[in-house]
Amino acid sequence: MKEEQKLSKECIGQLLAIRDTMELLSGKWKIQIIGTLLRGGTMRFMELKRSLNGIAPKKLSNDLQELELNKLITRKVKETKPITVEYSLTEHGKTLDNLIGEIIYWGQNHRTEIIRK
Amino acid sequence: MKEEQKLSKECIGQLLAIRDTMELLSGKWKIQIIGTLLRGGTMRFMELKRSLNGIAPKKLSNDLQELELNKLITRKVKETKPITVEYSLTEHGKTLDNLIGEIIYWGQNHRTEIIRK
DNA sequence: GATACTAGTTTCTAATACGAAACTATATGA
DNA sequence: TCATATAGTTTCGTATTAGAAACTAGTATC
Fold first, then answer.
1. Which positions in chain B touch A20 (Cβ < 8 Å)?
2. Long-range contacts: A42-50, Cβ < 8 Å, 24+?
3. Do A89 and A38 touch, CB atoms closer than 8 A?
4. CB B49, CB B3: distance < 8 Å
5. Domain ranges, ordered by start, for chain B
6. Residues of B whose CB is below 8 A from A40
7. Choice among A8-12, A28-32, A48-52, B16-20 with the minimum mean pLDDT
8. Does domain A28-115 have CATH number 1.10.10.10?
9. Is residue B31 pLDDT above 80, yes or no?
10. Of A17, B11, B14, B102, which shows the fewest CB atoms inside 10 Å?
């Protein structure tokens, strides 16, 4: 009597969507980077580094490259005296606004939930 | 001329909330587990394992323990013939509904966005 | 007695993530 | 010339994550 539990296509698609999103955004810094760019608009490398308290330049550089590959941000080199590089969100990157809003809202709520035991 | 860029308290609080949430939910399986429980309601260990295609029992066990510690799920042992264990979301765990909905929605949209080049 | 189901645990290994420190290269100002 | 700023890269080491395989232990079925 094998109860082969068939998963509906829709459910599988939802789990895949969760995997895709989390693969892209998991980790310590990526969402913080995007959240900072959402607030700050166009920002330079060192501006980002200062805003993201504690990130190593290597990590910031790697994460920015990965986000660019996924078309969430753009990188623009400015031929200023010491060259500067401007990072900003693409239109697609800006669609993370709602999601990040939910993450912030839930995180703040969770903190009070855990604290009040 | 030091331009010390002061971060507002609100922004710092938001970055902390992002860190809290992501620390809890980062990784390959945790959100998939919660998403599955959101759809399936109360589920047993092996039901979860079968729904989450490919998860190792050790990982499932570890993640469930961690989620329980964070009061997102409850674990109930049933004294049936072969003992069964039922997992379900707490009320607090269910508040992840909106967030996971956003993750699914964004992931599906991102897929079409990347595919259509 | 052999097999299978329940819910895990144990052990070992490979892959990935993260971080600190030092370094590159160009340019400006004291 | 020395210090500082730009935007990173390189090297190295540790820590965390994930997975595969085998195993435990109780009960039930063939």
1. 107, 110-111
2. A42/A86, A42/A87, A42/A88, A43/A86, A43/A87, A43/A88, A44/A84, A44/A85, A44/A86, A44/A87, A45/A84, A45/A85, A45/A87, A47/B5, A48/A87, A50/B5
3. yes
4. no
5. 28-115
6. none
7. A8-12
8. yes
9. yes
10. B11
Please give the average per-residue pLDDT across B48-70, as a whole number: 96
- Rounded to an integer, the average pLDDT of B69-90 is 95
CB-proximal positions of chain D, under 7 Å: 5-11, 17-22, 26-28
Q: How far does the CA of residue B85 sit from the closest CA of chain A (Å)?
A: 18
Chain mean pLDDT for chain A: 92
Q: What is the CA B27 to C1' C15 distance in angstroms?
A: 14
| A51, two tokens | 């805003």
Q: How far is CA B25 from CA A15, B17, B33, in A?
A: 15, 12, 10
The answer to whether B85 faces chain A, any CB pair under 8 Å, is: no
pTM of the entire predicted model = 0.92
Q: What is the DSSP string of B84-101?
A: EEEEEE-HHHHTTHHHHH
